[in-house]
Each structure stands twice: as C-alpha cells, then as structure tokens.
Amino acid sequence: MMKSKVYSSAAEAVADIGDGASLAVGGFGLCGIPDALIEALAATSVQDLEVFSNNCGVDDHGLGILLSARRISRVTASYVGENKEFARQYLAGELEVELTPQGTLAERLRAGGAGIPAFFTPAGVGTPVSEGGMPWRYSADGSIAVASPPKETRAFGEKRYVLEEAINADYALVHALIGDTDGNLVFDKTAMNFNPLAAMAGRVCIAQVERLVEPGEIDPADVHLPGVFVKRVVHTGPQSKRIEKLTVTASAGAAS
User: Is residue 179 within a helix (H) or strand (E), and if so which, with residue range?
Assistant: First the structure.
C-alpha cells in the first residue's frame, strides 16, 4: 500500500532535512514563498544548507530567517533583493553566493527536473558569467577568496552560447494555492513564478498548500504541476501576505 503524501504538519514534513542538504525554494521576492516550511525548518537545528532560489527573502521573513540564523552557507540566486543581511554576509566573506541570470536559473531548475544535464544559452556570453572571475566568496579583507570558473562556450550558426549545468537539489520547498492528496498542485497567478521549477528540481518535493482537496476535485486541465513531482503535502491554510518594500507618498495637504 502506497504511503500517504499528506503530512500532519510542516514540522513533520521537513523533519528529515539534515545538515548540508541542498534546497530548491520557490517564490519571487515574497510572492508565493513556502513560509510555513521555512519557519518549521528554522525551528530545527539544521545548518550548512545550500539554497537555490531566485532571491533570499527579507531580513525577517522567508529564507531571510534561515540566513539571519546562519543556517545557510551557499546561495545560488539571481537577485539579492531587499535583504540587507544577505548583502552583509556576502561582502563580509561569511556566505558563498553564485549570482546567475534569472532566466538561466529558471532553465537550470527546469532542466534538472526534466533530466537534462546541461544546455547552451546566449545569456552571459562575453561577460564574467561565461569567462569566470565572478566573486563567489570574499575574504574578510575584501579580496576574492573563491571566484567562478570559466565555462565552455560554443558557436551555433553565427552566435556563441555558454554551457550551463542543470540544478538538482536534495529537497524542494514550494507553496501552492490548491493541492490534492496525490500531490497535484495549482498555483495562484504570479505565485507560479519559480514554484513549479523548484518542485521539479528537488528529489523530494515538499508542498505547502492553502487548500487541500481529494483526488478528482481539481480539473486535470487546471493542474499546473502533476503529483509525480511531489512527495509530501502539508495543509497550511491561507498565506499571510507580506509587502516586500512599502513606498508611500505624502498627501497634497501634508506636503503643503
């Protein structure tokens, strides 16, 4: 008899994630991030995590919680974002960071899930992305301790392309609006961003869902990610909405 994919809590779902694990994490900024799973992971003693994610949340929310607790040792991302601690740790030599073009990161995750080991892309050709020398880790004195290596390039027709390797992670943490007990997922609007791609790249995908339904309640045509990619499902309820950066303008009366 097949074991149920439904776990009773976020804590139970992430309990076996150990030191040194690699994580593919969905979300974009604070949109569609698996916040309950991240908080449950932060409540454990796990450390030395390697993270693949578009960005690293903010200082007090999302992956920023794990970062502030010094649980993350390496990040592959395309955007530092509004996380000041992320920038501080990177520039101080406390965190290794591989910055990669956003579309390349998305395709590396998708390729990992599709079983494609590498692919050629024009993004980054003729820049440090392909030629190497990008600072992955700084020394305390500000010198470069670890630099990116040069990558293979090849001409196809009249253009040059750089070889990028796929990403496979030990675990994937994602957020969905609706999930059924078989793991089929539906994402809400722009929360579809990196969530399906991260889910595909993880060997064990853990999905937190706002609504949990029975198999057959989701129209097959509405499924964004089939359950074959999802190993664990947690019903976490409606997600609280955070604003990453709030900008306000003074009213005409106040300005005068």
Answer: strand 169-180
First to last CA, the chain: 72
CA–CA distance from 224 to each of 13, 152, 200, 204 (Å)?
Answer: 22, 34, 12, 18
Lowest mean pLDDT among 91-95, 203-207, 241-245: 241-245
Alpha carbon 173 to its chain centroid, in Å, reads 8
Q: Work out the angle at residue 71's Cα, subtended by the Cα atoms of residues 65 and 76, and round it to the nearest 5 degrees.
A: 85
- Model pLDDT for residues 161-216, shown as the tens digit of each residue: 999 999 999 999 999 999 999 999 999 999 899 999 999 999 999 999 999 999 99
Alpha helices per DSSP H over the chain: 10-13, 35-42, 63-68, 84-91, 102-114, 128-131, 195-201, 252-255
> Cα–Cα–Cα angle for 119, 203, 198, nearest 5°?
60
Q: Rounded distance, CA 152 to CA 163, Å?
A: 5
Task: Identify whether the C-beta of residue 218 lies closer than 8 Å to the C-beta of residue 178.
Answer: yes
- Structural domains of the chain ordered from first start: 6-117+166-235 (3.40.1080.10)
The percent helix, strand, coil of the chain (3-state, each to 5) is: 25, 30, 45
pLDDT digits (tens, 9 = 90+) for 57-77: 888 889 999 999 999 999 999
Query: CB-side exposure of 238: number of CA atoms within 13 Å?
Result: 3
Specify the pTM. 0.92
3-state class (DSSP) for residue 91: helix
